[in-house]
């Protein structure tokens, strides 16, 4: 579970303070000062080096006592790792040399410890600065809070205009209601609070601040979010266990009719239970009380509230006196007041069945409105398609990065399943990692022509993700050199590179390098150069990198379309372009000019 560059024992000597030989008596309390989630840092935010060992049942206090007994006043900070059952001593290394005791291991920052998938920072480790002055108990500011739902409501933790989670401080709700939680935020922090979220599933609530107004943390509270994120609140992260309340904003407008003729609720297939996708996951949904509405009136309300472009399913919960509108999780609308969210953010449209719950009936009304997407006929589509998937995202913790890569693979899967794969239309899959670019499924492999094997390969890539998805930088250059050149050389059909990424370079100012690589492809191969169709995972605002290399860019929610509809558009573009290539090939030579 843990890795380190040096193994503990008599082989390692550390430079420690001169008084270590005479260890001090362990009288300090581990929580006497301040605490923070994750491993310990210095005053400038750089991670400190330290030594760690197995806790072997010791408590937080007993772990600190062992540190002090062994290393004395050289111990400057201390952390406890409850999941991995270890504790760490952070040492002043400016003095004498001592031998590291047997059973201890040296580490230089968190990269040598190994994070635990699906665990947040405070679960992995908590740093205790026991020498620091204790944080004073919060005192009342005297500021009266507004109504928590006075403005706009969003699904997830509060984010700014760039989609970054704002700096927040959270604590246990201890039975407080949504309003009582916001009252507490204002009572403790005053009117510098700019946003608020309530996490009923974890019994917590969060107060948000502009990065220039973040207060010191009181006892019993924890920091989270981006310390550099600027106000205002502009949306939510989409995380289903939280609801963000932008009480400073104008209220969410009341629903207006979408203008579309609502289909009959029972026009398509009917399933027992809540609506699920092809993986059996309950789709993301918003539900509210029926207030006496019939099944048809409930669906009418879904369309009037959210519009026809995003509602992909509907269920009616008569025993609960509720109804639910379902969405593709990549196209979630704002959560209006009076509605609640549930379902899985990993679920993807379309609706394919129900989960069997006796409390609900799922209506897949779209089956009675429009047919499911069907691939182009083989005779009408001939191309070489490579999906290049960016598998690294610079997030604070591994889980959000893994989710971003999963969503990228979901989109690639949606495109692949709409293409009539064959010997004249192979589909390759390329892994773009931090230090490597590698074929997961080569374009000239026999498996690349089989829809079932391509789908299996994509699923294996999606299911095999780990903490390595959280990294800075992606190895993009080979896409524009060897990979693109290989596609250009296959001159029997046009080539397409489906580049799926957030479009963010480790060094954003390097975008001209890629612009030159793209221009060189056009210069070398002319019309045989592959077309770059880019899908930006992080939304509508493009980057200079994507602007310079993409022949066309797509993004979630584009033109109010679902991911499935965008995938269909890309498929049609590939096949339409291939038809044009075939029709013009008799009068225009392919290959290098």
Features of this protein?
single chain; 593 residues; 4 domains; 10 helices; disordered N terminus; disordered C terminus
Helix fraction, binned, reads 10-25%
If classified by CATH, what would the architecture of the largest domain be?
3-Layer(aba) Sandwich
User: What is the mean pLDDT?
Assistant: 82
CATH domain topology of the largest domain: Rossmann fold
How many strands in all?
30
Summarize the structure in words:
- This is VWFA domain-containing protein.
- Residues 1-23 form the signal peptide.
- Keywords: Signal.
- With 593 residues, this protein is α+β, with helices and mostly antiparallel strands.
- The chain folds into four domains: 13-129, no CATH class; 152-246, no CATH class; 269-368, no CATH class; 378-584, von Willebrand factor, type A domain (Rossmann fold, 3-Layer(aba) Sandwich).
- Helix content is 22%, strand content 23%.
- The strands form seven sheets. A six-stranded antiparallel beta sheet has the order 2-8-4-5-3-7. A six-stranded antiparallel beta sheet has the order 9-16-12-13-11-14, with helices on one face. Strands 17-24-20-21-19-22 form a six-stranded antiparallel beta sheet, covered by helices on one side.
- β25, α5 (398-416) and β26 form a beta-alpha-beta unit.
- It is globular.
